[in-house]
Specification:
Elements: E1 7-9, H1 25-30, E2 39-43, H2 49-64, E3 66-67, E4 70-71, H3 74-83, E5 96-99, E6 111-118, E7 121-122, E8 128-132, E9 135-143, E10 155-162, E11 166-169, E12 180-183, E13 187-190, E14 193-196, E15 199-205, E16 215-216, E17 218-224, E18 231-236, E19 239-244, E20 256-261, E21 277-283, E22 300-303, E23 310-312, E24 317-319, E25 326-332, E26 339-348, E27 354-363, E28 371-378, E29 383-389, E30 396-404, E31 409-417, E32 427-429, E33 442-452, E34 457-466
Parallel strand pairs: 1-2, 6-18, 8-19
Antiparallel strand pairs: 2-5, 3-4, 6-7, 6-9, 9-15, 10-13, 10-14, 10-17, 11-12, 14-15, 16-19, 17-18, 20-21, 21-25, 22-23, 22-26, 24-25, 26-27, 28-29, 29-32, 30-31, 30-33, 33-34
């Protein structure tokens, strides 16, 4: 996350008033050493919504456009936005500033993703209809920026299937006019599958909870090649959503649910820290419903049967690679008091059958961190390490030590990290000792020690093979 920071855009008054005595919100975001934003297109004084609306439109046009075939830098985006004809005499624009490097360009996904077949048939300009409870299989290809088929592209495709647009209204807070617009607010399926030699294929089941409006849906597609880090995107909208598929096997059984805290090796006999991570493994043969369309048809968590602690977790669901009927939910619980607690988790399948699973556990302050799954990835000139832990969203000190099999300390480094979820940041060893000399080939022991703010400490180790250098 810390190496993939977003561009922040704000149109609210005084968000980055950098000449005020106190630190502004924008300064806090931009100067955050462990996150925040790579740059800010932001406000330094009072601004007005009607003028902001026009400026935002011009900004959106310029951030995604090209000049002479090249992407605009942040400075050029700022310049073109403020110098556009509709903004020429607008004083409101003077309250907007660019905080960041004006020569920087954003990391745009330059590869194109195209759908070629749906349910085995080539796509055409005709509008197909996806019906509720129908299994849909989509095939597609990835193309390089110059239009050539990317036959060496290997990685993952992340499809997001969206229902037809629905009307949305603003709240009209503080006496403001109610603004009406249309947006695709319901996600029917979000998954991931493999891209092999530039081609991909994935399937999903249309849930029963759709609009039945026979209006156009949309599939957003994002691909990433993990080796080259090339990215691409595209969409497909040549289909409508409506009706119910006739050839459906009746299903009255809800999803299978398995619950854990912090790690899938956890058992209810083990005490946990005050902010454990809920891990829910969910599966259903017919497919899972995370659309949130039907009333109450959410992946829902209730803590201690408290109506003030009810959480909708649809957006926290991640499908397993290559599967539309299995995945997991990971959610960091709010700070809990010491002692016994109870939680309930409910999930729905595409035919609107529900299952509920309960869990009783004990919170014990000062519990030592739990570490697992230390993974070492060998590259040409270095090793990359990651591990799982049960201290998400809190600072921990991580000390990594590399030892020879004779017990000699070859290399050691300490760092502080605060991972957003249960997986650590990437740790790196360049195969050198403490004096910068390349270590000889052989077997080494990598040891990771984690210490939290309360002094709790745990250790995990793994053997690695270093080739002669």
């Amino acid at each position: 996350v810390n190496s993939c920071l977003p561009l922040g855009v704000t149109a609210t008054c005084d968000f980055t008033r950098y000449d005020a005595p106190d630190e502004s919100g924008g300064e806090t975001v931009f100067l955050n050493p462990r996150g925040g934003a790579i740059a800010l297109f932001t406000t330094t004084r009072i601004v007005y919504s009607s003028n902001n609306f026009v400026l935002n439109q011009r900004f959106t046009d310029n951030i995604f456009s090209r000049r002479n075939g090249k992407r605009n830098t942040l400075g050029e985006i700022m310049y073109l936005t403020k110098r556009s004809d509709v903004m020429r005499n607008d004083r409101n624009k003077l309250s907007f500033a660019l905080i960041g490097d004006p020569a920087m360009k954003l990391a745009y996904p330059e590869y194109a993703v195209k759908v070629t077949h749906v349910n085995g048939k080539p796509v055409s300009t005709a509008i197909d209809t996806f019906q509720a409870l129908q299994t849909v299989t989509v095939e597609g290809e990835v193309y390089a920026e110059d239009g050539r088929f990317a036959e060496t592209f290997n990685g993952l495709v992340h499809p997001t299937v969206l229902d037809a647009p629905s009307q949305v209204k603003t709240l009209g807070s503080n006496g403001a006019d109610i603004f009406t617009y249309y947006d695709r607010t319901k996600v029917l399926f979000s998954g991931k599958d493999s891209v092999v030699n530039g081609r991909f294929r994935f399937s999903f089941v249309v849930p029963k909870d759709i609009q039945y409006s026979y209006k156009q849906g949309r599939i957003n597609l994002y691909v990433c090649d993990n080796a080259s880090l090339n990215e691409g995107h595209g969409y497909f909208d040549q289909f409508a959503l409506g009706g119910t598929y006739a050839q459906v096997t009746p299903d009255t059984t809800g999803p299978s649910i398995r619950l854990f805290l912090n790690d899938t090796t956890w058992t209810p006999k083990q005490a946990v820290n005050e902010r454990p991570t809920l891990i829910a493994k969910v599966s259903d043969e017919g497919g899972l419903n995370t659309s949130g369309h039907g009333i109450g048809h959410d992946f829902q968590l209730i803590i201690d049967e408290d109506p003030q602690q009810v959480y909708s977790l649809n957006s926290y669901y991640t499908a397993d690679v290559g599967s539309y009927n299995a995945g997991s939910v990971q959610f960091v619980l709010p700070t809990l008091t010491p002692g016994r607690h109870h939680l309930s988790f409910r999930a729905w399948d595409v035919q609107n059958n529900a299952s509920i699973q309960h869990l009783t556990f004990t919170v014990k302050p000062g519990e030592d961190p739990m570490l697992s799954n230390l993974v070492a990835v060998r590259q040409a000139d270095r090793y990359l390490f990651r591990f799982n832990h049960n201290r998400p969203d809190v600072p921990v000190t991580v000390k990594m030590t590399v030892l020879s099999l004779m017990g000699q300390r070859c290399w050691e480094e300490s760092t502080t990290m605060q991972a957003g979820q249960w997986q650590s940041d990437v740790l790196e060893w360049n195969l050198s000792d403490t004096k910068g000399r390349k270590v000889p080939g052989g077997v080494y022991l990598c040891r990771v020690q984690v210490t939290d703010a309360t002094g709790g400490e745990s250790m995990i180790a793994e053997k690695i093979q270093v080739l002669p250098q």
